[in-house]
Amino acid sequence: MKIAIDLDDVLVRINIIEGVLRDMNIPLKRNEIKSYGFYELPEKARKEVWRRFKMRKYMVDQAKPIRGTKKKMKEWAREGHEMFCLTSRDDKIAKATKAFVKKEFPLIQDTLVLNGTKKEALLRGGFDVLIDDALKYMNEALSVGVAAILISNQHTPYNWDRTSDDLPAFEALANVNLSVVSK
């Protein structure tokens, strides 16, 4: 199976929102930010979140692999699956992102850094499944005939209200069972 895997909150944890909450003394917890656009935050804080999303310091240097992801990837490699990272990030940090993924996740065959949609890459890449935490990318995958598996946990409150019970969801990549995907 050819697997496309998202990076942020699927393979790695980034703590930008928590940092902005702390640095700006905003009395909210991460799980209270439930919109993908961070609309629960004051405008100044939202702008700071989006600014940090474009910075290597926060998106690469401080990113930490999520426990269990490397073990799951070794399992999938032994089973003969091909794994690719498909992430939406700013062009300014694309090179650093690719180097980070290569270092931390050597079983990933290639990293595609996109600025926006994943739909075209899913089509061109011939992927069988996308594993992601963002509902908009789930919908893109499904619209082009690519199966989708949602990662939903305490770090992804923006997808807790997913609209379809038909969409397979797992708490972490380490728990993903590929048998939910029909070939």
How many distinct beta strands? 8
Shape: globular
CATH architecture of the largest domain: 3-Layer(aba) Sandwich
- Which CATH top level class of the largest domain fits? Alpha Beta
Radius of gyration: 16 Å
Helix content: 25-40%
Structural class: alpha/beta
User: What would the CATH topology of the largest domain be?
Assistant: Rossmann fold
Average pLDDT figure = 88
Proportion of β residues?
15-25%
As for the number of domains, it is 2
Order of SSEs: EEHHHEHEHEHEHEE
**Count of alpha and pi helical runs:** 7
Compact overview of the structure:
This protein has about 180 residues and is α/β, with parallel strands linked by helices. The chain has helices spanning about 15-25, 45-50, 55-60, 70-80, 95-105, 120-125, 135-145; strands spanning about 1-5, 10-15, 65, 80-90, 110-115, 130, 145-150, 170.
Throw out a few tags for this protein:
alpha/beta, Rossmann fold, 2 domains, 183 residues, 7 helices
How are the SSEs ordered, and which strands pair?
Elements: E1 2-5, E2 12-13, H1 16-23, H2 43-52, H3 56-61, E3 64-65, H4 69-78, E4 82-88, H5 94-104, E5 110-114, H6 119-125, E6 129-132, H7 135-143, E7 147-151, E8 169-170
Parallel strand pairs: 1-4, 1-6, 4-5, 6-7, 7-8
Antiparallel strand pairs: 2-3
Helix pairs in contact: 1-2
Describe this structure in words.
The protein has 183 residues and is α/β, with parallel strands linked by helices. It folds into two domains: 2-12 and 65-180, HAD superfamily/HAD-like (Rossmann fold); 16-60, no CATH class. The protein contains seven helices and eight strands; from the N terminus they run ββαααβαβαβαβαββ. The protein has helices spanning 16-23, 43-52, 56-61, 69-78, 94-104, 119-125, 135-143, and strands at residues 2-5, 12-13, 64-65, 82-88, 110-114, 129-132, 147-151, 169-170. α1 (16-23) packs across α2. It starts with a strand and ends in a 13-residue tail after the last strand. The model has no long low-confidence stretch (mean pLDDT 88).
